Automatic annotation (TrEMBL):
Coiled coil: none annotated. Residues 28-157 form the Glycosyltransferase subfamily 4-like N-terminal domain. It comes from the Bacteria. Gene3D superfamilies: Glycogen Phosphorylase B (3.40.50.2000). Pfam families: Glyco_trans_1_4, Glyco_trans_4_4. This is Glycosyltransferase family 4 protein. CDD domains: GT4_CapM-like.
């Protein structure tokens, strides 16, 4: 079959969906569609076709949005897919609209509801009207957490029997795995936050809590990884420079090899109040057997069982975040080892990427049996 995958960046497809693309290109004719300007080298050897198109990923200007929708429609029309899988809030909606015009089944993945869900005024009403109409016409909808699923059901945005829950984007359990530290040189106790540097990811809260922690504890380091966001929602370079000047604080910038980085840290922190699906950084950290600190936000709390593999704190609560980070430092070696094992077991039980790939394959098979040819 001709199968298309649509996302808001080549980076997303490369980092979060590469295994899915590999599984599908072995059986189907696959095309990928993403906004222009992304890096694509990791997908060059897969034997798929790549279709960059124009899209302002974070904008809301009506003419630019119409241009982006038409660009995606033309991109898909050239590829002539029989089924389209889509990801990310804006590209989900635009893929649904383009597929409706083309009369092609579209299967979106709701990885959080995105910032559009928080729009007010006329733009907010327009978004909700369009989302309600087009999600109801999806062939199937994947949800990454139960809160989003229940919200869509309450709003009447999905049809009964045409949706399912999946464990985020899944994680490669062979690549992300615990490592034995026998014989390793002693090193500082390390915290890591790895995320897009958006304010809503809790970057400022992490910086404030880690600065307070470093002021009273020695033998500890706090790392921050992630590229600067060009949009107004991001933290500024000046803020990062000020935090980086704190002894023990280190800003690593964008990191490609997360598996290697995770082997150098003890606790992964994500104090997000962003509308998440299931954060990839948390499930990768769980697979590596790390202690986790996150918020009680939907999606985040799915990866942390309080007292077993980490801590949940209220969003935007610097003091609670500081308390959790301090608690992680005071664990005995036996307590720490038990929590590390609990993280790995949770990843094996719930977040294996093969679970996700199998569900995608099953839904595609259902579409085939229902007459897609």
């Amino acid at each position: 079959m001709r199968v298309a995958f649509v996302a808001n960046s080549a980076w997303y497809l490369r980092n979060f969906r590469l295994s899915t693309l590999q599984a599908f290109t072995g059986v189907h004719e696959v095309s990928v569609h993403y906004p222009e300007g992304g890096a694509v080298s990791a997908m060059n050897s897969l034997g798929l076709t790549q279709h960059p198109f124009y899209l302002d990923s974070s904008g809301t200007h009506p003419l630019k949005e119409l241009r982006g929708l038409l660009a995606l429609w033309r991109s898909l029309r050239r590829a002539r897919p029989e089924v389209v899988f889509s990801f990310n809030p804006k590209t989900n909606l635009y893929a649904l609209m383009a597929c409706w015009l083309m009369r092609v089944p579209c299967i979106p993945n709701v990885s959080g509801v995105g910032n559009a869900s928080q729009l007010g005024g006329a733009k907010g009403r327009l978004y909700r009207t369009l989302a309600g109409f087009f999600y109801r016409r999806a062939a199937h909808v994947f949800f990454q957490n139960s809160d989003d699923c229940e919200a869509f059901l309450r709003a009447g945005w999905v049809r009964e029997g045409c949706y399912s829950l999946i464990p985020g984007s899944g994680v490669d359990l062979a690549r992300f795995a615990p490592t034995l530290q026998t014989g390793a040189k002693p090193r500082p106790f390390r915290f890591l936050m790895a995320a897009r540097l958006l304010a809503a990811k809790g970057v400022r809260e992490y910086c404030a809590a880690s600065r307070a922690l470093l002021a009273v504890h020695s033998g500890v380091e706090c790392w921050l990884a992630g590229g600067l966001a060009a949009e107004t929602r991001g933290v500024s370079e000046a803020e990062l420079d000020a935090w980086h000047a704190t002894p023990g604080a280190d800003y690593l910038g964008h990191v490609d090899d997360m598996a290697s980085l995770l082997h150098e840290v003890d606790v992964v922190v994500l104090p997000s109040y962003y509308p998440e699906g299931i954060p990839r950084s948390l499930i990768e950290a769980a697979a590596c057997g790390k202690l986790l600190i996150t918020t009680t936000m939907p999606g985040c709390r799915e990866v942390v069982v309080p007292g077993e593999n980490g801590w949940q704190v209220p969003p935007r609560d610097e003091q609670a975040l500081l308390a959790a980070m301090s608690a992680a430092m005071t664990l005995s070696p036996q307590e720490r080892a038990a929590m590390q094992q609990a993280s790995r077991e949770l990843a094996e039980r719930r977040f294996d990427e093969q679970i996700v790939i199998q569900q995608y394959q099953q839904v595609l098979a259902q579409q085939t049996s229902q007459g897609v040819s």
